[in-house]
Amino acid sequence: MIKASMSAILLFILATNASAYGWVPEDCPGPPPKEWAAYEKEVRTAIPSSTVYVPKPFPVTEAEIITDLKHQYFRIWKSTKRAKIPKEELPLLDGLETGALRFHVEKVVDWTPLRCHPKYPSPFYYFVRVFNPREGELARFLVEKSGLLAQWANVPEDANLKARWLEALPAIPANLAEIKAKYGIQGTDAQYVTTVAGTTRCPRTRPCVAFKARGKMYLFDRTERDGLFEFTPQSPGVTSEEMRERARGGAGATARGVDTRVMGLFSVGNRWV
Q1: pLDDT band for position 130 (50/70/90)?
Q2: Residue 226 main-chain phi, psi, to 5 deg
Q3: Angle between the N-to-C axes of helices 62-77 and 90-98, in degrees from 0 to 180, rounded to the nearest 10
Q4: Over residues 41-52, mean pLDDT
Q5: Are 207 and 108 in contact, with CB atoms under 8 Å apart?
Q6: Would you say the C-alpha torsion 193, 66, 90, 136 has a positive or negative sign?
Q7: CB-based contacts of 254: which residues, under 8 Å, 6+ apart?
Q8: Is the model's pTM score more than 0.70?
Q9: Cα distance between residue 27 and residue 7, in whole Å
């Protein structure tokens, strides 16, 4: 089902950023603040005792990203006795020390207000999934563009919660295939995104997928109830009922129940819609 935005008119401009940072419906206004350059210099010139020090500032390669991640993770726990370390962290610590873990790195475009933070901009972050070959996924780390570790989350131990957590993040090609089967829409320029939202849920550790199709932009949220949100620069959006009528004639589309609620405000770059 496609849910409509609460905005009467989508005022954001259909301007996308095709750079390595990914695209966003509307980017930060005006020229970059001077503080952004000052922060970058602070990180690049930091000494090991600094709280913003990383071995590979502003990493680009996967090896550089993992080097920064390991350095900061070990620094967090280095002064803690093993008996005091939470048990869910021990497989990570041991695996990182022995090199037994493998990593999957994705870039997630930040559509939250953090993207335009006056001092610490966050146009994107590296989404690092950590796997043990025997036990599967152990944790998800968020490494900022600067290389600094933002947060991490361990995979839930509860079997049901773990299944839902893992199911919510299929690969982008699988997302696009699901969208085509359900709605008859063939997406392009797909990317993972995080948003701040009301009814839609795209948290940083479980991002959604944004894509383009037919001159429009879409956000796909499949966490609790499948939801496809459509953006156009000219219209107030498309209601669930209207999209259901369209889907009836779409290739591969399936009839679905109608959710007549409108979604709450959520962020797209520098605006809320």
Answers
A1: very high
A2: -55, 135
A3: 130
A4: 95
A5: yes
A6: positive
A7: 181, 182, 247
A8: yes
A9: 18
